[in-house]
């Protein structure tokens, strides 16, 4: 199973549908989570936190809050999603790149991967991403990983959501299920119903293949990449993983 790459650009949501992103997922829905991320980073970092690299930053919804505290560098595979985020966060640095391989040639106080991490479907990809995060993180800094779910918390479900923006409207059905419990993926099928300003309507189907790993795998790959792992449960009962990059004299 491949992750997104320029050869395999992945879900429609981040290409043709990107312009509709604020009707799928709006900044208003992120205030509490961004506050939690801010508090958690501050609680785990050694020294001051000024610079934050977000890998897979998408439409920049979390960034729209975190930019009040930090200088943000936002990296995403999708040029279309970066364009959405640039409109919301013009003061942030935006760069196109793959979280597995991007090389910015500089280090940050903290590195964050939010729900974009769900698109890594193999353990070796998690490790590759964490090694890359390590290369971009200063000593005493932290990496924070916020997957939507882990193997132990996964539940098949169906949700519906969407918004109007005054001219356009979108509703979607999100149907999550795991056809093969023995592998490290599950599927989310999205059905979008778009209403255009002229009143015409369109329907799209969009399949997202996502990674599903047990807690012990997350902890193991964080350790393998060289970080000291931490595991916490957030206010919404989701698993959050951190890696502390200790200086060699503090390592252990
Ligand atoms: C759900 S969106 C992120 C939304 C984001 N949390 C926000 O606050 O707006 C997931 C993003 O991950 C990006 N993505 C997926 N795989 C990636 C990879 N290997 N490297 C960089 N970005 C990736 C997609 O292009 C997409 O923009």
Q: Record the strand order, biggest sheet.
A: 3-2-1-4-5-11-10
Number of domains: 2
State the major sheet: 7 strands, mixed
CATH class of the largest domain: Alpha Beta
Low-pLDDT residue spans = 1-6
How many helices in DSSP terms?
Answer: 6
State the separation between the terminal residues, measured CA to CA: 35 Å
3D structure, described in words:
Helices cover 22% and strands 32% of the residues. It has 252 residues and is α/β, with parallel strands linked by helices. It has two domains: 12-150 and 213-244, 3-Layer(aba) Sandwich (Rossmann fold); 157-211, S-adenosyl-L-methionine-dependent methyltransferases, CATH 2.20.130. The strands form two sheets. It has a seven-stranded mixed sheet, with helices on both faces. Helix 5 crosses helix 6 (215-224). The model is unreliable at 1-6 (pLDDT under 50). The protein binds S-adenosylmethionine (SAM). S-adenosylmethionine binds next to loops. Residues 3-4, 14, 55-62, 76-78, 81, 98-100, 114-116, 119 line the site of S-adenosylmethionine.
Please write out the topology.
Blueprint: H1 21-24, H2 31-44, E1 51-55, H3 63-66, E2 71-76, H4 79-88, E3 93-96, E4 108-113, H5 123-135, E5 137-145, E6 157-164, E7 169-177, E8 185-195, E9 201-211, H6 215-224, E10 228-233, E11 239-244
Parallel strand pairs: 1-2, 1-4, 2-3, 4-5
Antiparallel strand pairs: 5-11, 6-7, 7-8, 8-9, 10-11
Helix pairs in contact: 5-6
């Amino acid at each position: 199973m491949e992750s997104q790459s320029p050869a395999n650009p992945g879900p429609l949501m981040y290409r043709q549908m990107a312009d509709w992103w604020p009707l799928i997922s709006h900044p208003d829905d992120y205030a509490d989570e961004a506050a939690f991320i801010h508090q958690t980073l501050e609680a785990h970092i050694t020294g001051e936190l000024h610079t934050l690299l977000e890998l897979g930053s998408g439409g920049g919804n979390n960034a729209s809050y975190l930019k009040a505290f930090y200088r943000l560098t936002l990296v995403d595979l999708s040029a279309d999603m970066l364009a959405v985020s640039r409109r919301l966060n013009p003061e942030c640095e935006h760069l196109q790149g793959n979280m597995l391989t991007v090389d910015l040639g500089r280090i940050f106080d903290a590195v964050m991967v939010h729900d974009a991490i769900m698109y890594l479907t193999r353990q070796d990809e998690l490790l590759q991403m964490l090694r890359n995060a390590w290369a971009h993180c200063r000593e005493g800094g932290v990496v924070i990983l916020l997957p939507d779910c882990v193997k132990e918390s996964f539940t098949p479900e169906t949700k519906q959501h969407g918004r109007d923006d005054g001219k356009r409207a979108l509703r979607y059905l999100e149907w999550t299920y795991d056809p093969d419990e023995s592998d490290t993926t599950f599927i989310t099928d999205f059905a979008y119903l778009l209403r255009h300003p002229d009143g015409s309507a369109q329907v799209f189907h969009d399949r997202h293949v996502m990674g599903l790993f047990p807690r012990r795998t997350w902890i193991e790959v964080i350790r393998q990449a060289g970080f000291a792992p931490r595991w916490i449960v957030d206010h919404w009962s989701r698993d959050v993983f951190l890696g502390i990059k200790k200086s060699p004299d503090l390592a252990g």
